[in-house]
Design a protein that fits this description.
GO cellular component, one term: primosome complex
Protein name: DNA 5'-3' helicase
Low-confidence stretches: 1-36, 418-422
CATH superfamily of the domain at 254-489 and 526-556: P-loop containing nucleotide triphosphate hydrolases
CATH architecture of the domain at 254-489 and 526-556: 3-Layer(aba) Sandwich
CATH topology of the domain at 254-489 and 526-556: Rossmann fold
Number of strands: 9
Distance between the termini: 86 Å
Radius of gyration: 32 Å
Region (Disordered): 1-31
GO molecular function, one term: 5'-3' DNA helicase activity
Family: Belongs to the helicase family. DnaB subfamily.
Helix content: 40-55%
Strand order of the largest sheet: 3-2-4-5-1-6-7-8-9
Length: 562
């Protein structure tokens, strides 16, 4: 029988498979899947070979084995990399900052093979996490004094990265490719370092320790790779959490689940807000969407995070209420504040703005304002209305004081962040915004209530009650949303249709018709419908409420839920 390390007929060593051959061709053209599998096989074979041969091997044997390792390492002298993927990802990030959220928790600067690209990405991360935009201009300010970037073109290199982008759809694929190639480089480092270490250690004492070290590094690398993907949880972990939720819901008669809406009928028909839901509140202009959203935000802030009970004491609400961020793009923060003040005082917003108040009313407004100040509500009135900017502000709010509920007023006034460098349809932009809001809800584990306009086609129908198809500019809103609720006020449309006398109509007929219209207006006055058109966790339906647009207060009416 031949010695384990004697040459074999196929040119390798006896009793072992042929030496590992790297994939032919340029490293940039390496097939990633084939390369990954081959390197993993090489790593496993390396451990097996060390365990099998080295414990009793001679110095000669160790040298031969090191030679095999060296040849493997030299075959990959140019580390696996894909500069095109790195450049495409950086360009996509500058064109559309929103793609950052697709890989921000996985892709790190050290994953880039080109150090300059890695430093550009690090600077982009710093800007994004600070709530600032990333573009060739903002990055240029950081790299103005950077000689390394200057050697490859300086600011022109940044502009070229952004200008060469055709689409941002593949940005996540670029990130995965960069991460995968980094893992392969790490695995090759293990092979090289093990080769060097084997030439230095004493065979009898240190080889088992070396094997353990190598195994540990390979397992660490594998675990890091898993951590870069989507979180994977075993069924018992998920099951334990769900059982706790079910038990808590039973003990609290359902109040432990999510955030209440303020009225029992709404909790029943619409369902409480729960993480990580994206809820769409849609309606035509003048329906009162913002008024209703403010009411939901106020009730959330005044309901206890632990017990879900309503907190009458404002000091207790400040400490224990749900923490709300209200992003307002249509109205200013001052206007939203006056709306909440109207709710607290029962005074009309116009009367307060125009100073048409009695001394007692002014005193009541001031006192109510001080109480309102204590509620855990933050108003985001920033003019920067991209999804990524909102994401950063919401994350900052959650990090600093906690965040339980986000309201966005409204989707069609947001920007996808892509229009600076590429042309895209508004439908594509709204789809990207909708997807971004859903990702925000999942990433921060909070419910997000987003207001949405509806298409004008509603006005052409005899029955003006909205349908899912009426969601403006994007069917993606319907797809991404966990719940879609429409606000409808028949009173508004009745007032738009005041009867006019027809040429062939006598006085009595016109009078009867006008009286019927007045009667219908009286019956519809102050009433609204919240129509649940989609609900992933329950059935659809309709709830009738009383809605006072002057104060924003909602109450139940006598209409039965359907």
């Amino acid at each position: 029988m031949s010695h384990p390390y004697e040459p074999s007929p196929h040119g390798g060593m006896a009793d072992e498979p042929p030496p590992f051959q790297p994939h032919d061709g340029d490293q940039n053209a390496l097939d990633q899947d084939e390369g990954d599998e081959a390197l993993l096989r090489a790593g496993a074979s390396l451990i097996s070979t060390i365990r099998k041969y080295l414990p009793g091997a001679s110095d000669y044997d160790v040298g031969r084995f090191c030679g095999e390792l060296s040849r493997l390492a030299e075959a990959y002298a140019l580390p696996p990399h894909n500069l095109e993927a790195e450049q495409a990802l950086l360009g996509a990030l500058m064109v559309n900052n929103g793609v950052y959220e697709r890989f921000r928790d996985r892709l790190k600067p050290e994953h880039f093979a080109d150090p300059v690209n890695g430093r550009i990405y690090a600077a982009a991360m710093q800007l994004m996490d600070a709530g600032k935009g990333v573009s060739p201009i903002t990055l240029k300010n950081i790299f103005d004094q950077d000689d390394t970037l200057a050697e490859i073109g300086g600011a022109k290199y940044l502009v070229r990265l952004a200008a060469s982008v055709v689409t941002v759809v593949n940005a996540e694929d670029y990130a995965e490719s960069i991460i995968g190639l980094w893992q392969r480089r790490q695995l090759l480092d293990v092979v090289r370092e093990t080769s060097v270490a084997l030439g230095r250690v004493g065979v009898e004492n240190n080889v088992p320790q070396l094997v353990q070290q190598m195994e540990s590094r390979l397992y660490d690398l594998a675990e890091k790779g898993e951590a870069m993907g989507s979180p994977v949880e075993p069924m018992p972990t998920v099951g334990a959490r769900v059982r706790q939720q079910i038990e808590a819901a039973y003990k609290s008669e359902g109040r432990s689940y999510g955030i209440g809406l303020g009225l029992p009928i709404l909790d029943e028909i619409i369902g409480r807000w729960a993480a990580p839901q994206l809820i769409i509140l849609g309606g035509r202009p003048a329906m009162g969407k913002t008024t209703v959203a403010r009411s939901f935000a106020r009730y959330a802030a005044r309901s206890c995070r632990e017990t879900r009970d309503y907190l009458h004491d404002v000091q207790e609400a400040a400490a224990r209420g749900h923490r709300v961020l209200f992003a307002t793009y249509e109205m200013s923060g001052d206007e939203q504040y006056v709306g909440w003040l109207s709710y607290e005082t029962g005074l009309a917003a116009d009367a307060m703005k125009q100073g048409r108040l009695q001394p007692a009313q002014i005193a009541a407004a001031v006192e109510a304002s001080h109480n309102l100040d204590r509620l855990p509500i933050q108003i985001d009135g920033s003019a920067t209305n991209t999804v990524e900017a909102l994401f950063n502000r919401a994350r900052r709010a959650q990090r600093r004081g906690g965040l339980d509920f986000l309201v966005v007023d409204y989707i069609q006034l947001m920007q996808a962040g892509a229009d600076r460098w590429r042309q895209s349809s508004r439908t594509q932009d709204v789809s990207e915004i909708s997807r971004g809001l859903k990702m925000l809800a999942k990433d921060l584990s909070i419910p997000v209530l987003a207001l949405s306009q509806l298409n004008r086609s509603v006005e052409q129908r005899e029955d003006k009650r909205p349908l899912l198809a009426d969601l403006r500019e994007s069917g993606a809103i319907e797809q991404d949303a966990d719940k879609v609720v429409f606000l409808y006020r028949h009173e508004y449309y009745l007032h738009q249709a005041e009867p006019q006398r027809r040429p062939d109509e006598n006085d009595d007929k016109f009078h009867d018709r006008y009286e019927n219209w007045q009667r219908a207006c009286d019956e519809a006055r102050g009433k609204a419908e919240l129509i649940v058109a989609k609900r992933r966790d329950g059935k659809t339906g309709k709830a009738g409420i009383n809605l006072n647009l002057m104060t924003g207060r909602m109450t139940e009416n006598d209409q039965e839920a359907q």
